[in-house]
Amino acid sequence: MPGPGSAQRWAAAAGRWGCRLLALLLLVPGPGGASEITFELPDNAKQCFYEDITQGTKCTLEFQVITGGHYDVDCRLEDPDGNVLYKEMKKQYDSFTFTASKNGTYKFCFSNEFSTFTHKTVYFDFQVGEDPPLFPSENRVSALTQMESACVSIHEALKSVIDYQTHFRLREAQGRSRAEDLNTRVAYWSVGEALILLVVSIGQVFLLKSFFSDKRTTTTRVGS
């Protein structure tokens, strides 16, 4: 029969695993709160998105161009009355945080109208408001239990890990795009060098052949 020490160890292990499972379940995104989209923006095109926001809500817009051209895009953010809150031209990436001053539909647009033939791939993350508390007791004056505090810490750490993974994936995609573009240019340059070398070689062959070819001269007598 197990003693009190064994029972305590089993209880502690069960608490740790329960905390981990709870934190993982709480990481599942719920409706609203944040929007992450990766889309293709054709040349001479403009793409707009709309979000209904309540007054006093803190929002953050973060975007990055993954592929295409010089990896830049125009971005513009407007409030429900059409006032410009944020405007940047030919930015590769940026982040903007604001607090909604009124209720209504906010609009933010990405423009590639300055490009005539290059498509862009754009990623953006639009966060609206703060995440809801994991436990109802977080909003109370009373302190959290040890298990609740551990779950909150794990939840925050895993959110940071997700953010880092997202940025690393974007950098990896951008680096892969640049590597593929460089590989294509090197391939074209190699083909061009091969063609030039072939033309020069053929020209040298004909030039050397002309040096050793027999030149026959004909003499014409003019009668008196």
TrEMBL record:
Membrane topology: Single-pass type I membrane protein
GO biological process annotation, one example: protein transport
SMART domains found in the cross-reference section: EMP24_GP25L (SM01190)
A Pfam cross-reference name: EMP24_GP25L
UniProt GO cellular component terms: COPI-coated vesicle membrane; endoplasmic reticulum membrane; endoplasmic reticulum-Golgi intermediate compartment membrane; ER to Golgi transport vesicle membrane; Golgi apparatus
Subcellular location: Cytoplasmic vesicle, COPI-coated vesicle membrane; Cytoplasmic vesicle, COPII-coated vesicle membrane; Endoplasmic reticulum membrane; Endoplasmic reticulum-Golgi intermediate compartment membrane
Domain of life, source organism: Eukaryota
Signal peptide positions (record): 1-34
UniProt keyword Transmembrane, yes or no: yes
Sorted UniProt keywords: Cytoplasmic vesicle, Endoplasmic reticulum, Glycoprotein, Golgi apparatus, Membrane, Protein transport, Signal, Transmembrane, Transmembrane helix, Transport
Biological role: Potential role in vesicular protein trafficking, mainly in the early secretory pathway. Appears to play a role in the biosynthesis of secreted cargo including processing and post-translational modifications.
Recorded family membership: Belongs to the EMP24/GP25L family.
Protein's UniProt name: Transmembrane emp24 domain-containing protein 7
